[in-house]
Amino acid sequence: MKKAVAWLLGFMMVLSLTACGAKETKGEAGGQSAPDVTDGKEASGNEEISLSIILITGNEFFQGAIDDYCDQHPNVKVDVQIMDTESYKTIIKTKLASNDAPDILPVFSAADYFSYYENGYLEDLRDMTEILDRLNEGAISSFVADDGGIIGIPYLQQFLLAYYNKDMFAQYNLTAPATWEELINCCEVLKAAGITPVVQGHKDTWVTQMLTYSLNASAVQAADPSFYEGTADGINKFSDNAGWLDTLTKYDDMIKKGYMNEGSLGMTSEQMYEAFINKEAAMTFTGTWGDASIFALNPDFEVGGFPIPAEGGSTGFAVSITGGWGVSADSENVEAAKDLLAYILSKEALETYASSQITCFSDIESGVSDALAETMDAAAGLPGYPFDDANFASGVQAVMFSSIQEMIGGDKTPVEVLNDMDMATEKANK
Amino acid sequence: MIWIWQRKRQINKSFWRRESSYLLFLLPALLVYVVFSIYPMFSSFYYSLTNWDGFSANVRVIGFGNYIYMFKDPGFRKALSNTFLFVLMDVVLQNVLGLGTALLLETKLRGRNIMRGLFFVPVVLPSIVVSYIWTYIYGYNKGVLNLFLEKLHMGPVDFIGDSGIAIYFVILTGIWQWMSYRMVIYVSGLQSIPSDIYEAAEIDGARPFQKLKNITLPMLAPAFKINMILCMIGALKQFDLVYTMTQGGPGYATEVIATKIFREAFDYSDYGYGCAIGVVLFLMIMLITVVTNWFFDKREVEI
User: Fold this and answer.
1) Is the pLDDT of residue A418 over 90?
2) How far apart are CA B163 and CA A25, in angstroms?
3) Does the beta-carbon distance from A409 to B251 stay under 8 Å?
4) Which DSSP letter does residue B111 get?
5) SS3 of A59, please?
């Protein structure tokens, strides 16, 4: 008898273990498997539903809309996680592969995300017509997969700019530069006066893109519109592109001439904003998301903005609809997730919570900060080009980050950075 | 012949009768071990032979391509040399400092119990906290060390932002963190040495240095062994401090094997190559552990 009990216990233990290890099978590629009928019921019923969502740092304003939604739907619980872009991009791969992705997740217009969609991890959002119809014309184009599926719904427009300290500029009779030559002149005057012209926090690798993509909009994308058509496949090489070389050479020059702060490789982006607010530098190169950090620190001077200009004046403007919302195909509550998504992107919610953002929706008037308004005025009429990495093969952006860091540290030349990027493209296509 | 066979069967039968319940109790642990250790190990080896990106459904076996690429990859060489620098500095400095403090705290020093506790604090701190504290101390802009240097009229140093020196300061942080762990093992080793050996040596007229050289150090061999092995494995697997302090940067200046694996698998979506490096790291750790074990086993002193 005792033995029988022992066997039984042992058997149960084994059983419980194998149950944990059981692997769910993945849906068909494309994530177009029809949602269960129960999903629809759950969304409107009173059953407890828990949803999870990841917000990218700087987009915390969505929290308000999520709270409102939960108030209206007491049966829905939403777990919100906030993380920065780079951490998110790293984490999401493992989360998707281990069926642990949040129901609603940020989706970027980049190679990896189309690949997630093609492998059945992302839901096709084609049927969310009510939201899609409200988008600005063309805004969705960078989120359409080869099969016509929509991998994410964009909500914000972002562009790159230089924030500058207007008081400091006025003190030295400087105005917002419209050409690279004028920008260099500003730097020269400020440096002669003992002021660090530009502060950058290169410890956070994404910062290396700010000057690069700003200049590339004119030097690469406007100058040679066909260049990126074959870049991801390795047909067009970065090292053969004069615009890229020019951009990185200008970057390198700024470092060598001391126009950027010393020790930038040891400085994070948050410290960079702090240094700008504490008047340790006259300018900082970043993107629209800088607004949240800069104005949260209450600057006691007037903050202006301008698009970082190209030599002889810009011919393009780095403006991007790179960020959007997607829905995980593994979500147990696809319909509920879509319902929440539809709410936080509704006119009502965006008007309440995203009034200071530049949204992609035609029915939302944006009341942006003076710095952003000034930048938009200066860039009026310029064609907008997406951030360059939308055209890279997977992994190339990460290599570019590190190689530009090495260039800043004086360990690499601009040509070597471009060679690294070519090698990374080759590796991605192996 | 039949008799032997029957006898054998009887033994077998009684063996199972006697041992089956014990074996059964082993089963859950074994299963956990297989599912969470053995299986991932073998699947890593399998994936190291593929071009898998970490998430897609199509996995193509490419043979030893990833291993061949490793030899051509300057990034891997950099990570390897940084890792060995880690091992070298960790093994030497952690043990020298750990043994030094252990010997100091074994003398009749006042407040040594409090000091033992204080020395142990860094070990208890999570690595993320250690890295934040030290990132702040090393900071270029108003970092504690640089404020101190300023007082001495010396220029600011970008301790972890300067690619030439960053790796040393990350390693030093690790040594600060783990030094007292070595110390604790040495303290316990010292306490296990019977005092009558020292007394006998004193009667024979041994001087303090002779006692250290001829009694303390040989008797500490087991503590040396465990410290060396733990130190080497810890340094070879080093990830958390590097990742939280510098993420392997600036550029690749502080890249070690573990951050290289992470970068390849998750930043570059080259899971297969990441696994290949992981397999090599595993083999390296195994080899080094076996060699160290053998080296010290020969020199251990038995009482």
Assistant:
1) yes
2) 46
3) yes
4) T
5) coil
Q: Residue B139: its chain A contacts at CB < 8 A?
A: 266, 271
Residue of A nearest to B161 (CA): A266
Q: Closest chain A residue to B39 measured between Cα atoms?
A: A21
CA distance B136 to B149: 15
Q: Are the beta carbons of A125 and A327 closer than 8 angstroms?
A: yes
Cis ω for the linkage preceding B250 (within 30 of 0): yes
Cβ B141–A271 below 8 Å, yes or no? Answer: yes
Pairwise CA distance, residues B259 & A366, whole Å: 42
Could you report how far apart the first and last alpha carbons of chain A are, in Å?
62
The amino acid at residue A355 is S
Name every chain A residue with its beta carbon within 8 A of the beta carbon of B270: 395, 427-428
User: Which pTM was predicted?
Assistant: 0.81
Q: Which two tokens stand for residue A369?
A: 């900060």
Whether the predicted pLDDT of A365 surpasses 90: no
**Measured between CB atoms, which of A7, A395, A412 is closest to B267?**
A395
* Structure token digits, residue A416: 């070597």
Nearest to A178 by CA among A370, A387, A381, A379: A379
Which band of pLDDT confidence, cut at 50, 70 and 90, is reported for residue A231?
confident
pLDDT exceeds 50 at position A13: no
Where are chain A's structural domains? 43-157+322-345, 158-320+374-428
Least confident stretch, A216-220, A243-247, B198-202: B198-202
What is the mean pLDDT, run by run of 10 residues, along chain B of 303 residues?
A: 58 72 88 91 90 81 89 90 94 93 84 84 91 91 88 87 92 93 92 88 86 86 89 91 90 93 88 93 90 80 57
Classified by CATH at the fold level, domain A43-157+322-345 comes out as D-Maltodextrin-Binding Protein; domain 2 (3.40.190)
> What ipTM does the predicted assembly reach?
0.79
| Closest chain B residue by Cα to residue A90 | B266
Amino acid residing at B175: I
B118 Cα to chain A: minimum distance (Å): 30
Of A3, A262, A411, the CB nearest to B21: A3
Q: Using the 8-state DSSP alphabet, how is residue A79 labeled?
A: E
Cα–Cα distance, A263 to A349 (Å, whole number): 42
Q: What residues in A contact B27, CB-CB < 8 Å?
A: 10, 13-14
Q: Considering only alpha carbons, which residue of chain A is nearest residue B24? A: A10
Distance set, CA A354 to CA A135, A358, A395 (Å): 15, 8, 32
Helix residue ranges per DSSP H, A331-411: 334-344, 347-353, 370-379, 396-408
Give the chain A residue nearest B249 (alpha carbons).
A402
Q: CA-to-CA distance for B276 and B273, rounded, in angstroms?
A: 5
Task: Measure the CA–CA gap between A330 and A322, rounded to whole angstroms.
Answer: 23
Helix runs in A233-333, H state only = 242-256, 269-277, 290-296
Of the candidates A29, A93, A263, which has its C-beta nearest B141's C-beta?
A: A263
Beta bridge partner(s), residue A51: A78
Report the distance separating Cα A314 and Cα A305, nearest Å: 15
In this predicted structure, what is the pLDDT of residue A422?
Answer: 94
* A90/B163 Cβ within 8 A: no
CA distances from B125 to B133, B184, B243, B244 (A): 10, 16, 16, 14
How does strand A323-327 pair with strand A153-154?
antiparallel
Q: Do domains A43-157+322-345 and A158-320+374-428 have the same CATH topology?
A: yes
- Shortest distance, CA A116 to any CA of chain B (angstroms): 7
Q: Which fold has domain A158-320+374-428?
A: D-Maltodextrin-Binding Protein; domain 2 (3.40.190)
Q: How far is B205 from chain A (nearest CA, A)?
A: 57
Question: Counting beta carbons within 10 angstroms of the beta carbon of residue B69, is it exposed (0 to 12), middle (13 to 18) or buried (19 or more)?
Answer: middle
Distance CA A358, CA A58 (A): 13
